[in-house]
Amino acid sequence: MTIYLDHNASTPLAESVRAAMAPFLDTRSDSLYANPSGLHRQARLVRDALERAREQVAALVNAHPSQVIFTSGATEANNLALKGWAAAAIRPWLAVSAVEHASVLAPARALARRGVQVACLAVDGDGRVTPETLEEGLAAWTRTQPRRAMQGLVSVMYANNETGVLQDVETIAEEARRAGAVVHCDAAQAAGKVALDFQASGVHMMSLSAHKLNGPKGAGALILDRSVALEPLQHGGGHEQELRAGTENVAAIVGFGAAAELARRELAARRERMQALRKRLEGRLKAIPQVIVFAERAPRLPNTTCLAVPGLEGEALVMQLDRRGIAVSSGSSCSSGTGEPSHVLQAMGVDPEQARCAVRVSLGPDNRPSDVDALVSALEEEIRDAGLEAGLQQPALQWAPL
Amino acid sequence: MAYSAKVLDHYENPRNVGSFDKNDPSVGTGMVGAPACGDVMKLQIKVNEQGVIEDARFKTYGCGSAIASSSLLTEWVKGKTLEEATRIKNTEIAEELALPPVKIHCSVLAEDAIKAAIADYQRKQAQGEAPRQECNS
Amino acid sequence: MDQHNEREARQGRLKLPIYLDYAATTPVDPRVAEKMCACLTLDGNFGNPASRSHVFGWRAEEAVEEARRQVAALVNADPREIIWTSGATESDNLAIKGVAHFYRNKGRHIVTCKTEHKAVLDACRQLEREGYEVTYLDPEPNGLLDLDKLQQALRDDTILVSIMHVNNEIGVIQDIEAIGEITRERGVLFHCDAAQSAGKVEIDLQRMKVDLMSFSAHKIYGPKGVGALYVRRKPRVRLEAQMHGGGHERGMRSGTLPTHQIVGMGEAFRIAREEMAQENARILQLRNRLWNGIKDIEEVYVNGDLERRVAGNLNVSFNFVEGESLIMALKDMAVSSGSACTSASLEPSYVLRALGRNDELAHSSIRFTIGRYTTQEEIDYTVATVREKVAKLRDLSPLWEMYKEGIDLSKVQWAAH
Question: What is the residue-wise DSSP string for A319-343?
């Protein structure tokens, strides 16, 4: 029996979510397979289901259902937010934090190649954008151009996928708004783990993913304040208020809705469970002097611990743990297998050699204390096997005075 | 598009379908819309000596809302004077049938149709007066 | 009365409404659903296929690669030529904009046809806004392209031809093998939207010189929300990615792969490959039964060539009857007027307009599309209902009355509205 501790990569589908999706997949009798764009009765039933899911997703983040644009996932939502906004903006200017997910950084780079000015917001040692680093970034914009001549977008994630560190989104949004910029927030990792309030947060756009909150892969959303003009990236057919063409992924969207509702109802309980598990984990890790936990004191998601055992290369350690039946990851799943040290840790000023040793543990509400204990024991054994055990080094020191 | 119960009722059981002889001087015919737009409405009224609409008929090429709008209108105009019938507003039809915004034009078309039918009747009357006087003399 | 009773009895055996909108989407085949549900259970295959470090990720990746082989097998392609997308709309966008952006220095002219799916037309329109030039070919009145006209439209700066295999509204099959010969000879890339043809018409990409081909799962009994783009390796076709992120799908399309959907698409393509021949014969027989049952109604026209046409499609105009009211009358059948993407709007079908159909006929069209679960009883019931409802609506139609009076409607001055 493998222990799954990689919930930031993906989560298992909740049973009730699967049940909500089932009639839209296996449905000869229930006629819930129709194309929601049709004129007939069957199409209307499907359309109603889509709208219900829209309400459920909106409720999770305190948004209006009309602000929910369904996409194929958070990657598409982030692409739509950045590139869609840039295409509609006059002389766009963009600032993204250095610790963003690849699906924000890569579109930003693509825009830079097309001549859009892109600035990178530095982060502090915990990986957080501070008022100072934000001001620095915004100043680069306001210095070079009269503010009115350009349109700016600031994109800062809600919670980091590798370290779990939370940004002070409200303050950032307030500052960015004051400078006249539009604010986007990738909340794919945060949704379902901490309470989100789109209206109160001050952001104009927020990206969500279904499969990070026990929903299915293949569905996500961009929550959009309609005062922001966006150009669609995918053309053809005018679905999703003309912002995202293509037949809706009905079953996955229905699953997304069900998962969002479940997450909203269980949020407090889940958070508590995960927090308790992590406390147990990090408490036990403290007893192992070779282990470092990154950004330990920063506000973080309740489920994420990013650790390193200096001297044990992260990918090798992950493979060893896999052999012991424990699934964790080194860095983000997207970049796993590349061998590159994490850009997130490097932006935090972590030494590249240490960053190469990083391992991400991301818990889920269904994990048990014994899962955490198994991980700790496995880590201890790996440390011992690698000869890094503190006790082994002691005699060498005592040997000196003779 | 979900239709209201009243639209469905008029669509399933349209009232006063048919045609009068359009050459009858007591009949006014209004034909509005165009096939290119997907709606053509023909509304006919039969008016008595007192200027009261005694009977009405319609035929409509168009969507369910267009059919229902014209069917409803034929019910409403019966027993009304011409003057009263001109005062029927498209908004009343739209409200009665609970038409969605994209179907408001159907009620506009119905209003146009009754106006056109009344105008046709009055034109005929105006033209008809001279010959009728001849007969009398 | 007898006739009525007979109808009632037949209706008793039937499950209403009858689904005849298979070109809009199809139910998921139970065999596909089973495979998908196996991925979705708690101890199912929920890992992120991009997770390289543990067994959950590997298992998901294995399932994704098996599906890639199944999709490739239906069209005789190399699995490495298949890129997963969120559906045919994304595939079309990626193919057209991806090629145009990559080859922008080679040329900026694209050739397509007026009857293409909106995904192709809107992507082309976007490129026009970016400074590209697009030639929109007119089809012949039967919906098929005159290849000489295509040949003449090609210029030295043409980089791409995008022509669909089977039209979604009228079901006609373009000769993509011949088009491939033309484009290859001229050194122009050829993209083909095969969303409506995969699993219904034979596709052999070793033989056909198609460079890019779009597929959808939900048109062939797979799930919505997943599709694929075939990108030829030899000679190699290059694309600029349209979705940026973690660099999935060899950098051509970022985003977490939805394992269960991809597995469903693979299974749907496997079934299609094995059952296509038999299924087509059965569906064609049903389509003929439907057409034979209604073709003697006065003023009924088939839209598009009836011979070079996919088996399941029958697109008919019932002159002097408005399409939306007919759909309402046929409430026991799920059919469509125009394509599903545009049918919520009041515009007549642009495809029928491109064939040169007049407004009345374009407004009067109904698309019946037959599929895997359609039965003969359903077709018979449909024939009887259509006959009855068309007669009823014509009794209501002032245009029908005028036609019967011998008035030439094209000469009537219609009040502007």
Answer: HHHHHTTEE-BSS-STTTTS-PPPH
Q: Which residues of A touch C323 (CB under 8 A)?
A: none
Decide if B38 contacts C364 (C-beta within 8 A). Answer: no
Residues with Cβ < 8 Å from C269, sequence gap 6 or more?
C67, C70, C71, C73, C74, C198, C199, C220, C222
| Tokens describing residue A151 | 């349109």
The torsion defined by the Cα of A385, A386, A392 and A398, in degrees rounded to 10, comes to 170
The per-residue pLDDT for C339 is 45
What are the residue ranges in chain C where pLDDT is below 70? 1-12, 42-44, 338-347, 415-417
Q: Does A402 touch chain B (CB under 8 A)?
A: no
Q: Which of C346, C396, C397 sits opposite B102 (nearest CB)?
A: C346
pLDDT in tens, B95-134: 999 998 888 889 999 999 999 999 999 999 988 765 444 4
Active site residue C113: no
Chains in contact with B, where contact requires at least 3 CB pairs less than 8 Å apart = A, C
Per-residue pLDDT at B71 exceeds 80:
yes
B119 to chain C, any CB pair closer than 8 A? The answer is: no
In order of A101, A152, C15, C140, the CA distances from A96 in angstroms are 10, 11, 55, 52
Q: What ipTM was assigned to the predicted interfaces of this complex?
A: 0.89
Listed in sequence order, the DSSP H helices in B3-103 are 5-12, 64-77, 82-86, 90-97
Q: What is the pLDDT of residues A298-343, one digit of tens each?
A: 999 999 999 999 999 999 999 999 999 999 998 765 555 566 789 9
Phi, then psi, of C162 in degrees rounded to 5:
-120, 110
Q: How close is the nearest chain A Cα to the Cα of B67, in Å?
A: 17
Q: Which residues pair with A85 in a beta bridge?
A: none
| Token duo for residue C8 | 């009632």
Percent of chain B with pLDDT over 70: 92
d(CA A180, nearest CA chain C) in Å = 26
Tokens standing for residue C112: 């397509």
Strand pairing category for A292-293 and A326-327: unpaired
- Chain A CA closest to residue C260: A217
pTM: 0.86
Task: List chain A residues with pLDDT less than 50.
Answer: 391-402
Shortest distance, CA A232 to any CA of chain B (angstroms): 24
pLDDT score of B133: 42
| A236 closest CB neighbour out of C89, C225, C226 | C89
Reference C60, options B46, A264, A108, A217; nearest CA is A217
Spell out which residues of chain C touch residue B64, defining contact as CB-CB under 8 Å: 324-325, 328
Chains in contact with C via at least 3 Cβ–Cβ pairs below 8 Å: A, B
Angle in degrees, CA C256, C259, C265, rounded to 5: 120
